[in-house]
Structures are given as structure tokens and as C-alpha cells.
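Hey,
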Amino acid sequence: MVNLPALLARVADEVRRQLRNMKLDRTVRRLPGNEVVALRDFLGPQADRILSRFGLIPAAVRRRRARRFEEDLRLLNDVLAGTAFGDRYWVWGGMLLGWAREGRLLPHDSGDADFCYDAADDELLDRAEPALRAAGFRRWYSFRDNTGVRTERTFIRHGALFEFFRLQPTEQDMQEYHLYGTGPTGLVEAVGLLPRLDLEPFDFLGRTWRKPVDHEKVLELHYGDWRTPDPTWGYLDDNAIVRTREWCPVGSR
């Protein structure tokens, strides 16, 4: 029997969440360069997240999407391998966590792949973009910090997101990255710091990727006890975040 009060509470919570996200979405859509993103590409991932939270996507559909996501990851790897950017990016976030902890992509993270690259390689990613687009990876939203610098760019294929985070060198051999979201008082820009680490190749999903040599150190910096699943963890809970500030990006007003 359906617990109606509990269901209504979940719906109300989701409505509040989406109202907060609407402000984030409006801001992102106004950023320079994001006007080329098709409305259907914008709405698809949003709808999927809502349906997933309520368990409304059938298991067969989830399995089919997971297989397609793996195929698209292999395609992404193949396309970038033919460009100068091919050995300049590395696996990060949930994809790295899934490989290290379970030897697979995390089921709840299917459809969202995170990668990093050094800020010095911006131009190489620019030059690789036509090859990605020719392979069906369309441009999704980019994020810019309060000064207007593009710190994250994303591509979409079959409704899945492939995100590339720009790491900017800072003092004491550290690297800075940026995350964006909604907080109790409005839009938030979070700044995280990671030590610069050596990279190495590793095999996953039938392809060779790159990752930090000491990937366990990186995962611990982000997640703490990364070996134990935590379903309540959100990306703004990242332990490597050192400061947050109001997000008012140039060009969004």
C-alpha cells in the first residue's frame, strides 16, 4: 500500500529542489556560449534525474541506458585518442570511484562521467571539440566563475553528460577547480584544491584511460572513507572544497 503522506512529502521536497535549481539553470543558460545548447538537450538530463529519484525508470530501461553509456564512453575515448588532447585528460569523480571500489561504473552515476584537464590545455580541448561533435557529442552547458573564466565544459550524447573540469595551477604545487550549485542563501561557487599528482594509464571498459598514480589519496581527499558507500553524499560535500562564495558570474545578468 502506498504511504500517501510520505509520497506527498517527497513530492514537496522535489518541488522545492527544482525551484532552487531553476535559478541555477536560468543563470547557466545566460552564460556566454550556452545559447547554442538546444532546449531538448537541456531538459533531457533534468527529467531523467527527477524520474530516477522517484524510481519511475524501469529496470530494463536503466540497463539499456547503462550499456549505451559504456559504449559512448568507449567512443569518447576513441575520438579523443585521435587528437592532441587524447593524453591530456584523466578520469575523476564517480567514474574513478566506481573503478577503484567496485571495478565498474556506479549504477547511480550512470549517465554522468567526470574528467579533469590542466588549464594549459584549453586550446587542445578547443581543437578536439569538432571531432567530438562529428561523433555525436553535442555541446551542453559550460560553467564560468565570477570573473568569467570557463572552468567546466560538458558534452551530451544519448542524454548522458561528459564533463571536463579545468584545473588551474595555484601556489605550493596545488590545483584549483570549481563546482556550482544552490545553497540556503542562493547560488554558490565552491572552490576545491588538489595537489598536483603524477598520472598513469589504466584499463577500464575495454579502453586505456589516465588517472592519478595515487588515486586512493585523491579519493580520500574528496570522499573521506571512499570504500564505504554513502547514499547521502552530494558533490558540494566534497572534502577538498576550501571555500564557497556567492556565484554571480559575469555575463549572466
